[in-house]
Structures are given as C-alpha cells and as structure tokens.
Amino acid sequence: MKKLLHLLILFTLMSGTALGQMHSPTTYLDILKGLSGKLKLELSYSPDLVALNENTTTQFSANADSCITELEKTANLRITQTDTHLIVASKAPAYIRLQGKVVDAKTGELLPYANILIGKAGAGTITNTEGAFDFKIQGRFAGSLIRFSFLGYKSQQLFIPYASDSSIVVKMIPKPYLLSDVYVLPNGTAAVDIVKRAVKNIKRNYARTTTQMEAFYRNTNYRDTIASQIIEAALLIQDRGINTQPSTTRIQVEELRKSNSYLVPQSKKEKLAFALMDKMFGGHRNILYRAYANSVRYYRMSWWYKPLTDYETFKYEFAGFEWLDSVKVYKIKFIYDKLQPDGKRASENKNSEDGGYIYVSSKDWGVLKMERWWKVLNDRFLTNMVIKDNYIWRTETGYPKISGKYYLKYKTGFATPNGTSAVYENPDAPKKERKIKERQWAEYVLLVTKVITDKKEMDKIRYREKLARDEHTYEAKYPYHPTFWETYNILKENPVQEKFIKEMEWEKSLDIQFKENSSNYANN
C-alpha cells in the first residue's frame, strides 16, 4: 500500500513538472511543449520568438487553462487553441520604436557616441552628436535587455518595452578611477609598453577577412558659425581586413545629396596648391575615403603619422584610467616628438601641441578609441590656421566590440572646407599684416550603421561601381531621390539642427537646393 502511495505521489510530481511546476530554471518553450503534450495538440510557434528561449523559475498552474493565462501574462505571449494546434505568438508589435537620450546623471550633460547594444539581436548603434537615439527594432526582442555604455561611466541596462513607441532618458553614473588604481601596472611598465601590447594584439582583435559596412556620412561647412553647405551620403564600404593595403578598400555611394555652397571659393593659387598636394599624396579631394581612413586600420601603412608604431617620433605618457562596463581602460597620451634639424624635439615647441589619446582595454588590449589633435598654444601665425576652439585639426574615432571583434563605429572631426579657409579684410596686404574677417571650416561625421561579416549576405562592390579615389567630392554630382531620404531611418537618429536648416534656407529650401545640385538637374 505504501509503495502504491509513493508511486501516486511521484506520478503527480511528474505531471506537475510537465506544466512547469519546478524550482530549477527551465525555458518557456519546455513548458509549452509539456503543455501541448498534455493537451495532445501540435505546438506551433515562430523559431525566432526570443521570449521562448528565456529561463524561468516560475511555478505555473497544473490546470491547462490557468497555465495558458499565466504564460500569456508572464512571457507576454498570445496562445491560441485549435482542434489540432496550440499556436504561440508574441503580443508585441511587429516593430518597436525606441527613442530618447543618454545623459550624465549628475550634470545632465548629453553624451554623444554612447554605445547601445541589443544583446539578443546581436546588433548595436550609438547616440548621435547630441547624445540622442531613435531606432526601430523587431518586436520579437521586446522584454530583452538593452545595454548603454560610455567610457568613464557605469553601464546601464534596461528592458526593451512592449509598447510600439517609447521614449526614455538614460542617466549614466560617472565611474571615476581611484588614485590607488594608478599603481596596478607591473613594475617597469611604461605607457609605450601598453601601446606596443595593443599593436601586438591588433591582428587578433580586428577583422582580418573581408567585412562590409553600411554607413552614413555628413559634412557641414561654416563661415565662422553660419551654416554654408551640407553634404550627406549613404555608403557601402568593403574592407578586406587589417593586413591589406588601404587601396583595397572600396566605397560605393548608394545615395548622395548636397546643398548650395555659400562659402567664399579658393583662389587660383590655393586650387593649384591643393591639386599639387593631391597629385603627390593622393585622395585629398575625396572626403569620403579620407573620412574612412583611421589610425587602427592603417596602423602600419600611414606614410608619416603613425602614433601606434613609430616609437621614435612620438613620446607617450600614462594619463590615467577610465571604465567601460567593469573593464579598466588605459588612457595613453601621445605627443608628436620628431627630432628637428636644429637638434630640438618637436614637443619642445611651446607654440602648439600635436598629439592625442589612445584608449586601450586592460582585458584584451583592444584599442577602443583614438583622439588626435593639433592645438595652438601661443603662436600668432598658427592662430590664423585655427578652425575651432584653438584647434587646427581634431578627430575622434570609436571602435566598439561586436561578436568578439572590434570594428569602426564612428569617426568625427574637422575637414577641409569647400572654399578658402580664411577670408581677409585686406587680402592684398603682406601675410603678416592680413586681418581675418571670417574663418571657413567644415566638420564631418561617419557613422557605421551595420557590419556584415557573412559573405553570403554581402552585396559585392564591383570595380566599375566603386568610388574613384581622385573624384572631387565637392564638385561631383549624383542623382537625387527624395523618396530614399524620406525613408532613410538614419536621418531620424541624426537630425540636422534646426538652426543649421534655418540658416541654409535663407534663399530657398534645402529640398530645392538638393535637386539643383544633382545630376538629374544638370542633365535637364
């Protein structure tokens, strides 16, 4: 009799397990399989329904109807019974629009280029120059975690809401390094040793095979602070890997539009000088290839400026730590220090500083970010070359880690304007006596919106379709298709500032300008 009682108890426990009555973690899919088996129905569901593969320790009712109600509520599912099937679908909309901004929790300062990673989707993006984001994701990822990270801050994790349209403000808490952290370096380790170790690991950390990238490019020109021209392009970039020559990289222009230019054009002498520079060094007129060129990709191939490998020309200083998630990041300052003909080092020049920062992960020695600048400290002649905030030149490049490898995510900086760099009150006076009336300058941003590593998914760029390196981007004309730009989601994530638009439309709308500067208009 006791044996029979024990068997009955065991049978009851096993029956309950089929409906998920267990304390150890199991997936929603396992529970549904047990439920469909008990109901003698065939289970039907979409294999890409993310929620089904998540673990749960919830104890569901042994009653089938109650279990279905509880599953629908807990996993946000819609479960339907027919005569033959148990059909499982998501309650989430087909697509979820997520928008908002990332800010410093203490100061409210907007954080541009913060990393956003949707783990289950295996995809990510970044905030724009204003610290804002606006993107769509498939509804099947509702309820999944989305991670926000930024150098020097604690990472934040949020659940993707089930609503079709959500707006959030992500407040990042600063995570400063402690003074005691500075002394964790092994004895005898110098800043240059960290750079050397990062270079040693470049082949392991960065793609060595062909990668394709979808990217967005924007170039904005100014006369002092007044908007004077805008160029935007949707690009397809094909890179054959870290070990190949820069000339093997191909760029295809999917779409390009440009406005009128309200800049003062270059003089004949300036045009001749730029033409000579382009002939000697190549690629200076094509602002798209120049935007993609970056220090990590061309770490051994740059002809003269190689802060990652030229240890005789540069000197290095340890500038502290920052944090990315729970990983310490070394911040290394490099300074151009070439030996001059007079026997002095370039760094002894107190009039300007040419250098930057290299951010290196202490975990895998990957280069996460590079900053480079040429800054005027005290020089009247060089002051005439200043573009903005005492900088003659400035760039910033970010390399987040995706699926075990680092890829270019963004590059931003100053660019050569589509005109003369300075407008003088007295242009005919000797150089030392000229007075600047207006400065003309440009800045750009290149955002990689998608990385493709599977060759089956790549849209191969044929030789005749690739962008010519000697094409003058400011002068070239492309077809303008308004419908493409109306549906181009990247523009929603990176809108042009209203002030810029207002200043550009003093004569005619931007849409008319785009049409009049296209090949369609020129041909007609």
TrEMBL record:
UniProt keyword terms in alphabetical order: Carboxypeptidase, Hydrolase, Protease, Signal
Molecular-function GO terms, alphabetical: carboxypeptidase activity
Any matching Pfam family: CarbopepD_reg_2
Cell wall biogenesis/degradation as UniProt keyword: no
InterPro entries for this protein: CarboxyPept-like_regulatory
Domain of life: Bacteria
Signal peptide limits: 1-20
Protein name: Carboxypeptidase-like protein
Originating species: Prolixibacter denitrificans
